[in-house]
């Protein structure tokens, strides 16, 4: 009997001949059915592996091998339908009860839902309501603070405060804008639904149409005269349209950055691909200089080797002033939001 | 009759209408002039001459401590169609002896009425500038070369002449110089009109011989 070799299908629990098998159906201690990939931790079959996933101590590897655990022998040797070998991997339950738990996270217990009727007003069911009734938030006047979660409460209050601050800022900006009138047409800019033309270097208020028209008068007056503020004669290189009146230096800087970013998305109509000196602003141009293959000129200087006709230059200035239409516009809500951030 | 005169004398306003912005701005400016209290103290006034608001009459008082003190000077203001992007045309209708104002036509040499115009300037600020020009003449950048030359070489005679002009044309107070009056009378006796006599004598430094030579040669 002992001369017969051991059936290797029996060892893995898969011999289909059963008792009629010519090989020895017996487990010997010398041939433990341990998955060697699992020992290295790389078995890709996981619980579906037909070998035993048991940890053998490294010291045992060289010396006497530890006997396989009885449980695994029993399950492997009994050819029942529930044996791990017969259960497809996708049907098997994962080790933990949830993925979050398996990943080592704390168990997630969803908060009981707040009563939506109570949130906005009064729930007709009152105390008999099956949902939880939230606590009143002082800022938004809604009963949305969860009584069971301090985290939810502080998060909501933070959101509410930010929203409130935004509203305050908008109200202030609106108030500030309402008092301003254009120094050229003398109309109230806000009342007439006009946009403000924010000058780069001074705080004088004009509507964008007026200041652009004035800056476009380069053929009648000296360019230096029209490029300066009509009130204080402070020179400004550009005008930025904005729906609200902006005076503070930081806010102005932010507006200019946003304006430049916006302009950078539009193609400069004076730039000729692969050429030098067509756009009088060179690399300082607000608009996009891009070649058809997507490359951009690196060292692009304003026309040095040819003298530009003054009329052409003033025409360019005019175009630059007038070209910026609706999409160059700064949305003032966005502006304020980004301002708060 | 007066309206007709204005109508035909200014073909520009007849052919093309004033822009909307110009009209509303002038209206605002007039309201401002009427309501503003400090305008009375500075002695500036604006009067509308027509309903189109293209032509106005400005009045300024001569600044104190100047030969123009006590005088009331009228100015003729013409509003261009694309005001305020173009300066108003302002000139003196009252005759004045000043290096930066033509003694013959009343044209003013003032940078803000020419290349240094700014769209934010108003009729009020323009008139204030003209008033300060009266107080501080700029003979180095003259409109009337004869006056400027006199101002530079004979400042005292210039002052006396300017004062006489103010008294004579701008209802300035004080006693007119009897010597000047005497010379004017002499020229008038020769059949020269009063305005021409004053102007010629002033230009010739109140030298009667030179004036007669100038007039009759």
TrEMBL record, chain A:
**Does Hydrolase show up as a keyword for this record?**
no
One GO term (biological process): protein ubiquitination
Q: Does the keyword Zinc-finger apply?
A: yes
User: Domain RING-type spans what residues?
Assistant: 182-233
Fetch the InterPro entries from UniProt: MKRN-like, Znf-CCCH_4, Znf_C3HC4_RING-type, Znf_CCCH, Znf_CCCH_sf, Znf_RING, Znf_RING/FYVE/PHD, Znf_RING_CS
Q: Which positions carry the signal peptide feature in this UniProt record?
A: none
A GO MF annotation of the entry reads: ubiquitin protein ligase activity
Q: Where is the C3H1-type domain?
A: 1-28, 29-56, 109-136, 262-292
- Identify the Gene3D superfamilies for this entry: Zinc finger, CCCH-type, Zinc/RING finger domain, C3HC4 (zinc finger)
Q: What is its EC number?
A: 2.3.2.27
- Protein keywords: Metal-binding, Repeat, Transferase, Ubl conjugation pathway, Zinc, Zinc-finger
Q: What is the protein name stated in its UniProt record?
A: RING-type E3 ubiquitin transferase
PROSITE patterns given in the database record: ZF_C3H1, ZF_RING_1, ZF_RING_2
The chemistry this enzyme catalyses reads: S-ubiquitinyl-[E2 ubiquitin-conjugating enzyme]-L-cysteine + [acceptor protein]-L-lysine = [E2 ubiquitin-conjugating enzyme]-L-cysteine + N(6)-ubiquitinyl-[acceptor protein]-L-lysine
Q: Name one Pfam family in it.
A: zf-CCCH_4
Automatic annotation (TrEMBL), chain B:
| Keyword terms of this UniProt record | ATP-binding, Nucleotide-binding, Transferase, Ubl conjugation pathway
Example GO biological process: protein polyubiquitination
Q: What class of enzyme is it?
A: transferase
Family assignment from sequence similarity? Belongs to the ubiquitin-conjugating enzyme family.
Q: Which CDD domains match?
A: UBCc_UBE2K
Q: Which EC numbers does the record give?
A: 2.3.2.23
Membrane spanning stretches: none
- Pfam families linked: UQ_con (PF00179)
Molecular-function GO terms, alphabetical: ATP binding; ubiquitin conjugating enzyme activity
Q: Name one GO cellular component term.
A: nucleus
Name of the protein: E2 ubiquitin-conjugating enzyme
């Amino acid at each position: 009997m002992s001369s017969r070799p051991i059936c290797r299908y029996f060892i893995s629990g898969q011999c289909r001949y059963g008792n009629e098998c010519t090989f020895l159906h017996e487990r010997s201690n010398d041939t433990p059915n341990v998955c060697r990939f699992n020992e290295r931790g790389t078995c890709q079959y996981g619980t579906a592996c037909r070998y035993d996933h048991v940890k053998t101590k490294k010291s045992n590897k060289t010396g006497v091998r530890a006997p396989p655990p009885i449980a695994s022998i029993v399950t492997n040797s009994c050819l029942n339908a529930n044996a791990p070998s017969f259960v497809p991997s996708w049907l098997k339950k994962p080790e933990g009860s949830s993925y979050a738990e398996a990943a080592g996270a704390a168990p997630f217990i969803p908060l009981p839902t707040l009563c939506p009727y109570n949130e906005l007003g009064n729930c007709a069911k009152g105390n008999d309501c099956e949902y939880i009734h939230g606590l009143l938030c002082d800022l938004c006047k809604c009963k949305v603070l969860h009584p069971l979660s301090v985290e939810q409460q502080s998060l909501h209050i933070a959101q509410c405060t930010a929203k409130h601050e935004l509203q305050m800022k908008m109200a202030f900006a609106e108030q500030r804008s309402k008092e301003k009138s254009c120094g050229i047409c003398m109309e109230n800019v806000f009342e007439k639904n006009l946009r403000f033309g924010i000058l780069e270097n001074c705080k004088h208020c004009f509507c964008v149409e007026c200041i652009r028209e004035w800056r476009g008068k380069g053929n009648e007056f000296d360019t230096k005269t029209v490029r300066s503020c009509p009130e204080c004669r402070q020179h400004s290189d550009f005008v930025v349209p904005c729906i609200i009146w902006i005076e503070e230096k930081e806010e102005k800087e932010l507006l200019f950055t946003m304006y430049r970013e916006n302009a950078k998305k539009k193609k400069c109509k004076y730039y000729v691909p692969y050429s030098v000196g067509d756009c009088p602003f060179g690399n300082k141009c607000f608009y996009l200089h891009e070649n058809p293959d997507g490359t951009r000129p690196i060292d692009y200087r304003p026309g040095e080797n040819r003298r530009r006709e003054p009329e052409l230059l003033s025409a360019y200035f005019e175009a630059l002033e007038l070209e910026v239409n609706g999409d160059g516009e700064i949305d003032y809500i966005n502006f304020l939001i980004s301002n708060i951030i | 009759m007066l309206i007709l005169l204005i109508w035909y004398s200014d073909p520009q306003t007849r052919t093309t209408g004033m822009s909307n912005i110009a009209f509303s701005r002038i209206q605002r400016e007039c309201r401002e002039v009427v309501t503003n209290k400090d305008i009375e103290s500075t002695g500036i006034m604006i009067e509308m001459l027509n309903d189109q608001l293209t032509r106005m009459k400005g009045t300024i008082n001569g600044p104190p401590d100047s030969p123009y003190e006590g005088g009331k000077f009228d100015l003729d203001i013409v509003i261009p169609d694309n005001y305020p992007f173009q300066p108003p045309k302002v000139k003196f209708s009252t005759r004045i002896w000043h290096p930066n104002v033509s003694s013959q036509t009343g044209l003013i040499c003032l940078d803000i009425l020419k290349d240094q115009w700014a769209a934010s300037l108003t009729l009020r600020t323009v008139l204030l500038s003209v008033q300060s020009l009266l107080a501080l003449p700029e003979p180095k950048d003259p409109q009337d070369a004869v006056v400027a030359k006199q101002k530079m070489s004979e400042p005292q005679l210039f002052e006396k002449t300017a004062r006489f002009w103010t008294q004579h044309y701008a209802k300035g107070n004080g006693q007119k110089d009897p010597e000047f009056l005497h010379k004017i009378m002499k020229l008038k006796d020769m059949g020269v009109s009063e305005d021409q006599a004053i102007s010629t004598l002033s230009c010739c430094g109140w030298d009667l011989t030179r004036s007669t030579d100038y007039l009759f040669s």
